[in-house]
Amino acid sequence: MQSLVEFFEKETNKKINIFKYNNEKINTNQNLIEFNNATYVIEFIKDNTINNIDGYCYLFNQQNLDFDSLKNILHNLYEDVQIYKYKNYLLLVSDDILDINNSTPTIIESETYSKTHIIYLEKINNIDNLNFKINIINELIDIIINDNDTNKFITLNDLIIYKITSIISNNQQISSLIKFDIIKNMDKSLLSTGINFIENDLNISKTSNILFLHRNTLIYRLEKIKEYLNLDLKNFKDAFIFYLSVKSFLNFMNNYNS
């Protein structure tokens, strides 16, 4: 395939992408070609396209990125998008906000059999802003991947939390203020329940349904957390401290074990 790319780039004097055709809609900068009894899409890309970026950006991370396969899947899911391989990620750019959410990684994983995280970078209109956000993601990508939660659709708000917990877990003075010794000896089900309760808006009914827990069991666990840490998770400030403390502890343990 690489030799085919080189051939067309030499003949057309343009940069191109080539990927298998799966009956997706063909854009104006794409053409179909037949090669070895298969149909491919040849996509012409201007050399400076990525430098003139302007749109809503989604970054896709896989441990072993199969760019062509992932690109095919995304072209089938979304129309009129631009897709690039950029700094070990797949970058998708759209003029509009796409229907991409926490269920999207599951769809992709069922096709690629590879753990997938999607980071929504919001609207970006210059390359410097793109690189700035990607540099932050590069700092945090191990934390994101090792996060015990099931969320694989990451927003900028999530990045703020990851960045704060990274600072806490790597700062001895700040981390000494957190009751790591108590958290370390707590039942993991308590920690997980507390995190889920906070991420479900401190809503007992919602959390019970998602965790398949009886309401009384959930209340009992919240009371045990209060008993261990003197934090009432029904109170915003206490919930905030618990969330940062547990996330920082988990990050610290991941770094310690790696």
Can you characterise this structure?
Helix content is 51%, strand content 20%. The two termini are 37 Å apart. It has helices at 2-12, 67-77, 104-112, 127-146, 156-169, 172-175, 180-184, 188-199, 204-211, 215-229, 236-257, and strands at 15-20, 30-35, 38-45, 55-62, 81-86, 89-94, 116-124, 153-154. The mean pLDDT is 89. By secondary structure, the protein is of the alpha+beta class. The chain is built from eleven helices and eight strands.
> Ends: how far apart?
37 Å
**Major β-sheet, in short?**
5 strands, mixed
Share of residues in helices: 40-55%
What letter string, H or E per element, gives the SSE order? HEEEEHEEHEHEHHHHHHH
Q: Output the number of helix runs.
A: 11
Q: What is the count of β-strands?
A: 8
Task: List low-pLDDT spans.
Answer: none
Overall mean pLDDT stands at 89
**Spatial strand order of the main sheet:** 5-6-4-7-8
